[in-house]
């Protein structure tokens, strides 16, 4: 239990975005701060009418907060739920006993199943600071978790949040390992699967390190922040959905861990497997198709790495009762033309509508995955899934089902495109030899994607195409002149991000 609470302070919303980490702001000369011995980076329990959070303290010497106030960051304000000016109590939180397991792992001792469950429980409850989370993530990185520990981590992450039970029968899902800009196949695969009679409640993520996640793209055409009852209504009515997983507590510890994995750039196979499969199990999936793009600038860079990760995913899935198929796909270049939420949505809509100018590579990739999913779900016999998927797309069944899903989720809208645009042209004539996935994605992010949905870039030249000197290779889209200039300044230093071979 926490120590006895101090004298109350008035809650104040500071309107400071600290992402997902709850942060508390107090003046250094605040009587409570002094009497409790709180210091910068102290962990402080903040309570109001039975609600309790643990926040990291930032000590303030300026006058924008008074000694009688407890300032709360946006994350802390949202979690505590107190109104402006409410009296809150502050106290030292009890020690986090599970940190002992993390320290033991740092020194080489394996996690027991019970130990890892304790750690994940405390992580999901918000008891770990970002520094402590970083220690846990680092202790697990570099393949330091064996198969038993990875299975235990996955089970613990499922057990720390909500789960959805869809009843008997197959519940289909798909996931892309990532690292391939524009690979927005989910929004095409789900309506094909649902139109063919499969049940596919798809919970998707927002962007972590990419210019767009599936939830970001889907949100440009329909609402995605649905709660569990709303998700059930949509799936019961249409057979599928495409919603943001962050709006429900499915494997909530994973969302917390991702917060520190991103800046640390640590994403080991064990952590990836636990992250992906815990979300699928919590969402009630029974059969999961995993798209694993492999290429020199993708997340998975070699066939050997793909085989190793594929085996781990299948072993962990088997242990927790999921059926998984992994499909190794081409990860050498971006998919489609758009990179960024609205631009990727435009590509998806073009494929679903059967537009003559729709990106052929996005359509073909989607049909490959949808065909595999139809066979995996028992709807199509071996070798016939792709043809069934193609027929569903060509006859408009997928487009009608997509509109049905959008309307059930709250209504369909056309994506809005940016007004600030600038072409980046080729300095020479020749064939496009390669496109760097990571650097082309960075340009899109510098332009403002995904926070600005209309931002990103539009590719005009695919690998193998001949371009003339001065011809546009891609167009940068931004929501403001400043963001456009920022992205172009970086693009100007990356003359080979779209590599053109040949002589002038």
UniProtKB/TrEMBL annotation:
InterPro entries hit by this protein? Glycosyl_Trfase_fam3, Glycosyl_Trfase_fam3_N_dom, Glycosyl_Trfase_fam3_N_dom_sf, Nuc_phospho_transferase, PYNP-like_C_sf, PYNP_C, Pyrmidine_PPase_CS, Thym_Pase_Put
GO cellular component assignments: cytosol
Q: What class of enzyme is it?
A: transferase
Alphabetically ordered keywords of this record: Glycosyltransferase, Transferase
Reaction(s) catalysed by this chain, per the record, are: thymidine + phosphate = 2-deoxy-alpha-D-ribose 1-phosphate + thymine
Q: Name one GO biological process term.
A: pyrimidine nucleobase metabolic process
The keyword Transferase is annotated on this UniProt entry: yes
The answer, when asked if Glycosyltransferase is one of the entry's keywords, is yes
Report the domain of life of the source organism.
Bacteria
The record's PROSITE patterns line, in alphabetical order, gives: THYMID_PHOSPHORYLASE
Q: Name one GO molecular function term.
A: thymidine phosphorylase activity
- Mind telling me which Pfam families this protein's record contains? Glycos_trans_3N, Glycos_transf_3, PYNP_C
Q: What is its EC number?
A: 2.4.2.4
Pyrimidine nucleoside phosphorylase C-terminal domain location: 431-498
Family assignment from sequence similarity: Belongs to the thymidine/pyrimidine-nucleoside phosphorylase family. Type 2 subfamily.
What is the protein's name according to its record? Putative thymidine phosphorylase
Q: What organism is this sequence from?
A: Ramlibacter albus
